[in-house]
Amino acid sequence: MTAATPAAKSCIITALMTGRPIYDINVGHILAPLLHVVFVQLRPEPWIMALGFGVGSVALCLYLLPRVKGGVVAFQWARRLNGFGADASGNVLKTQ
Questions:
Q1: Any alpha helices (H) in the chain, and if so which ranges?
Q2: Considering its fold, how many domains does the chain have in total?
């Protein structure tokens, strides 16, 4: 079995870190336990739960999106992935 090249590793890391489905699944992991607790403890009407958790999921996505995206860009910058630390010709710049 051959080892992955550094370029292949950076592509794999980038694909895993920047995928929108992963971001949406994380919002679901935050709201799912809350959905269960609200249903078991309060037993609200279905339309109230749908409205409340629909608004909550949109608000949570809008709140977390810039923070998660900033974290992904910071990770890429720290590891010099996807053009960070390269000049226009693609050559990696050496820092002192």
A1: 6-18, 20-42, 46-78
A2: 1
27 phi, psi to nearest 5 deg: -65, -40
The residue type found at 61 is C
Residue count (the chain): 96
Report how far residue 70's alpha carbon sits from residue 59's, in angstroms, rounded to the nearest whole number: 18
**Residue 71 located in a structural domain:** yes
> Which residues does 82 contact at the CB level (< 8 Å), separation at least 6?
10, 14, 76
Taking the complete model, does pTM exceed 0.85, yes or no? Answer: no
Domain assignment present for 55 = yes
In which domain, by residue range, is 64 found?
Answer: 46-76
Residue 30 counted as domain residue: no
High-pLDDT (> 90) share of the chain, %: 28
Which residues, 6 or more positions from 77, have their beta carbon under 8 angstroms from its beta carbon? 84
Is the residue at 60 inside a domain?
Answer: yes
> Do 40 and 3 touch, CB atoms closer than 8 A?
no
